[in-house]
Amino acid sequence: MRVIILKDYTSVSEWVAHYVYHKVHNNKCVLGLPTGSTPIQVYKNLIDMKTNFENVTTFNMDEYIGLPPDHIQSYHYFMNYYLFNKTKFHQNNIPDGMAFDIINECKEYEQKIKNSGGIDLFLCGVGSDGHLAFNEPGSSFNSVTRIKTLTSQTIKDNSRFFNNKKPPTTAITVGMKTIMDANEIIIMASGINKSIAVKQCIEGPVSNQYPCSIAQSHANATIVIDYDAANELSYKTFKYYTDLQNNIDLFGNTIHDYVNNNISVRDKILITSPHPDDDVIGMGGTMDILPNKSNVKILYMTNGQGGIRKEDNYGKHTRIKEAISSVKILNYNKEQVVNTDLPFYNKNPRIISDEDSLIVDDIINDFSPNHIFICSDPDPKKTHIHCLNILKNCKINNDTKIWLYKSAWQKWSECSLVPNFDVCISEKSFERKLLAIDMHISQINPPVFNNIKINSFKNIVNINNKSYKYFDKYSEKFYVCNFNEFVKINNIYKN
Q: How far apart are CA 212 and CA 188, in angstroms?
């Protein structure tokens, strides 16, 4: 069992949304879904992230008996309002609380789950008494989808959704065995009123008096809670799990805690790249795991054609086309790519002017990014340095975070700056990064600069992305600062 302890409900929601996004986006998946107040922000985040659910089949945990689907407090209505009506799914399944034969409806629902191949990931909220779905205290761990009479505590907790009037007292719910049969479960909890249940879930004995405690027996269970929900945990338990969070990848070799603490799903991100390959070489793994790819623009400041030999007979826009193919590997589309082809790049000698900065300034002002990623290593023809200085001349809000990354020409050890931020990337993300680099076919045999070719680029990538700080195999390093500090950095290269 893994326990993630975050500062508040917003952080819990962002963590879970990000995890689900990487699980289901463009993938075939069967999801088990909860209702209630806990998952609302998760669903909103997933919509904001433009998650592709087209190959996803869902099964909801429960439904009140006697409420028609269009009733404002039915779980049909809830799911349609917060999620199903806002994006396309392969198939959605919710128990029918108005079925003529409720017992048969339960049996058929359980069979549908089996026919789908079982649940890949079950998201669960937890009640103040420790119930999962409507599996109240005392529920059998061998139970499957069935009719359940609700306890007075659950009725009391749910009455707030019915204007403090008595809600239905019976419901269809998936069983404890149904939940435990899922390949993976995530239990979310927020607020002081959940703290006793959370304590029992994590520290208590496995007992049907607190159904959530069965998570301790699941081979792949994650409990995601905020500080308030962790209030009853012993200091030893709290310290153990928070210490783990500070030393390993929170997302199981997917991403470190920078998502929750540094980049929100609503933040706009501008990735600048001097040439159409520096981005994937320097930060392709981070690009692969950013929390909301739909909020990303990739700005190529030159067309990069100067890095192609004339005798190779490549077309005028070869490198931009390669770049589009490259970022597609990382699930970006061509509409997110901006090619400025700045004037300085076509001059001889290449000297930057106000015109270059004005072009970039207009793009930044129109987009209003919260984060700008900037390549910070020199190349033989000084294009990288020119682009760095152009960005320094732009009018960028000081609240904008600047992320300096290294491309192919320099290791961090060769820089006067010491990176202050690691982003852990999984082996799969690293593999996708290498595939993205491979899309730059024209660079396999480019004009020779210091004997560096694309294969040499990949060797440097292997060196730069080795992670020793965390247990993860790979990470990408950055120097993160505000814009004023970035402008003041005059010499970031060792002599």
A: 11
Rg (CA), the chain: 26
* Architecture of the structural domain at 2-246: 3-Layer(aba) Sandwich (3.40)
Query: What span, in angstroms and rounded, lies between the C-alpha atoms of 414 and 495?
Result: 9
- Domain residue spans of the chain: 2-246, 269-488
Whether 409 and 463 have beta carbons less than 8 Å apart is answered as no
> β-strands 146-149, 170-173: how paired?
antiparallel
pLDDT class for 112, splitting at 50, 70, 90? very high
Please state the rounded mean pLDDT for residues 101-123.
Answer: 97
Report the distance separating Cα 252 and Cα 23, nearest Å.
12
CA atoms of 201 and 214, how far apart (whole Å): 7
Going through 406-482 in order, the beta strands assigned E by DSSP cover 421-425, 474-482
| Sign, Cα dihedral of 296, 301, 302, 307 | negative
Residues paired with 297 in a beta bridge:
270
Q: Is there a contact between 411 and 309 (Cβ–Cβ < 8 Å)?
A: no
| Contact between 169 and 136 (Cβ < 8 Å) | no
Question: What are the pLDDT digits (tens) for 451-479?
Answer: 444 455 555 555 455 543 333 457 788 88
Domains 2-246 and 269-488 share a fold: yes
CATH topology of domain 269-488: Rossmann fold (3.40.50)
Q: Tell me the backbone φ, ψ of residue 415, rounded to 5 degrees.
A: -115, 145
Residue ranges of the alpha helices (H) in 134-211? 152-158, 176-180, 195-202
Which residue numbers are catalytic?
A: 62, 129, 131, 136
pTM > 0.85: yes or no = no
Of residues 147 and 422, more confidence is placed in 147
